[in-house]
Amino acid sequence: MNAINHSIPATGTGFGRAFTENFLGEAPSWYKLTIAAFLIINPVLLYTTTPFFTGWVLIAEFIFTLAMALKCYPLQPGGLLAIEAVLLGMTSSDAVYHEVTENIEVILLLMFMVAGIYFMKKLLLHVFTKLLITVRSKTALSLLFCGVSAVLSAFLDALTVTAVLISVAVGFYAVYHKVASNKQTHPEHDHSSDDHVVEYHRTDLDQFRAFLRSLIMHGAVGTALGGVCTLVGEPQNLLIAEKAGWHFADFFLRMAPVTMPAFAAGLLTCILLEKTGSFGYGAKLPTAVREVLANFAAEEEQKRTQRDVIELCIQGTVAVILVLALAFHVAEVGMIGLMVIVLLTAFNGVIQEARIGHAFEEALPFTALLVVFFAIVAVIHEQHLFEPVTNFVLSLEPEQQPGMLFLANGILSMISDNVFVATVYINEVKAAFTTGEITREHFEKLAIAINTGTNLPSVATPNGQAAFLFLLTSALAPLIRLSYGRMVIMALPYTVVLSIVALACVVYAL
Question: How far, in whole angstroms, is CA 98 from its chain's centroid?
Fold first, then answer.
């Protein structure tokens, strides 16, 4: 009997330890305690304060999970917060479903377009390796990444371009990491672990990470610079254009007084950051890494068979089809992505389910996270968290409204989601125009302020734009040590410059 009594606490203790170890897995203990505290405090706040206040606390908690993405993938802690919000009645499952269906284009894009880009990796790695080896000036290379990303995003889509950047950077990193680990003969080398990195390669590897971080951030900001310019650049652009009755050329021309100066200012900022080496920029490509990449390119050329050449040609042809299909918007982006998957796998002989499945590994976790994000957006919508700001802006004098609307959209987009913020504000402004409260000319000024406000200042935080959030939660981020905080710091100079230039244009050029 004594033995039995003695074994109960031991079993209980073991069970408790196992439970805490399983909860959020390998995340630090302080992180687990923080998430547990969030889950406990939310019901208390809801019943002792107001749903409005608790809603803002929930947003802050969710942003915390994004900020700590390298400690624990945000899907699990963010998902627990979202589930709790539904159970507490701060939103409903129907409202979450509505937000998801409203953004089905983005979800399909992530599911299929990112997977489609996976099957173009050989071509992308080939092209960008040549570029990296040929262009020796880091400033010129950074400007190229930023400018090309902007142009592509204007005609394609920011998430698609970000997926290309991620794929290319992971390819570069994997090539050098294998050499740094003396694992050239191991085709299945794990480039996420530094356990086998040779000591004298570590300094070059750290510098290479800094080099890739700066290139990727220039490219990511470039997607915002280009995405704001055209009707197809960002999801909210299409919505705003529809409400305003603008076609492709109309949209571009009306946005140009703000977007073109912002684009020029963004490129100038890119140059200055590389020249000064501030805010985490300026790292050069180490000579040893350049040699490894050059040798890799030469080896690939030597061992390339006729079948490999045909594969590259197929990928190049499909890339052209992709650009044309997106530019002319022949179908929703996700459907075009599925077409790319079918064409590339069919003509390059990828017909096994297991080989196709690898293409979806990168995008589907983020797709799930995005659905959780839409649950938080549903809370914002259900609790009318942005309503005070909306009412304040629309109560101002007409000449003050464009500038204040730009600032309001920018700040709220940093906190939540630029697509949601744009949707809320364009609907409010359209309602004011329909009821005759504002003129057509003033409505167009406000629409321009909403579009530029949600697209440009939102580069400040990873949760401001889907492309930035995708980058933060991608397989690349931990490889190059790109955390939430580091992204915010590296984006800061761009945020300040773009916000000031765009705001000045909204106030004085419209």
Answer: 22
What value, to the nearest 5°, has the Cα angle with vertex 169 and ends 453 and 337? 65
- Concatenate the DSSP letters of all residues of 221-233 into one string: HHHHHHHTTSTTT
Please, which residues have CB within 8 angstroms of residue 384's CB and are 6 or more apart in sequence?
52
CA 370 to chain centre: 10
Inter-residue contact 371 to 360 (CB < 8 Å): no
Query: Is 243 a residue whose pLDDT tops 70?
Result: yes
- Above 70 in pLDDT, residue 200? no
Residue 6 has pLDDT above 50, yes or no: no
Residue with tokens 């571009």: 252
- Cβ proximity of 203 and 438 under 8 Å: no
What's at 274, amino acid-wise?
E
| pLDDT band, residue 241 (cuts 50/70/90) | confident
Confirm if 410 and 456 have CB atoms less than 8 A apart. yes
d(CA 497, CA 476): 27
**What stretches of 71-113 show up as alpha helix (H) in DSSP?**
75-87, 93-102, 104-108
The amino acid that residue 363 corresponds to is A
pTM of the model: 0.76
Angle subtended by helix axes 75-87 and 93-102, to nearest 10: 130
Region 377-404: what's the mean pLDDT? 84
DSSP code per residue over 409-449 = HHHHHHHS-HHHHHHHHHHHHHHHHHTTSS-HHHHHHHHHH
Residues 403 and 449: beta-carbon distance below 8 Å: yes
End-to-end CA distance of the chain: 86
Q: 3-class SS at 189?
A: coil
- Distance between CA atoms of 323 and 328, rounded to whole angstroms? 9
In degrees rounded to 5, what are phi and psi of residue 413? -70, -35
Residue type, 289: V
Tokens of 439: 């003129």
**DSSP letter for each residue of 11-23:** HHHHHHHHHHHHT
pLDDT band at residue 196 using 50, 70 and 90 as cut-offs: low
| Residue of 111, 107, 116 lying closest to 350 (CA atoms) | 116
pLDDT in tens, 125-178: 777 778 888 888 999 999 998 998 898 888 766 777 888 888 888 888 888 877
Query: And the tokens for 6?
Result: 């003695």
CB of 120 within 8 A of CB of 313?
A: no
Tell me which DSSP letter residue 392 carries.
Answer: H
- Neighbouring CB atoms inside 10 A of 50's CB total 12
Lowest mean pLDDT among 5-14, 253-262, 289-298, 327-336: 5-14
CA–CA distance, 237 with 242 (Å, rounded to integer): 9
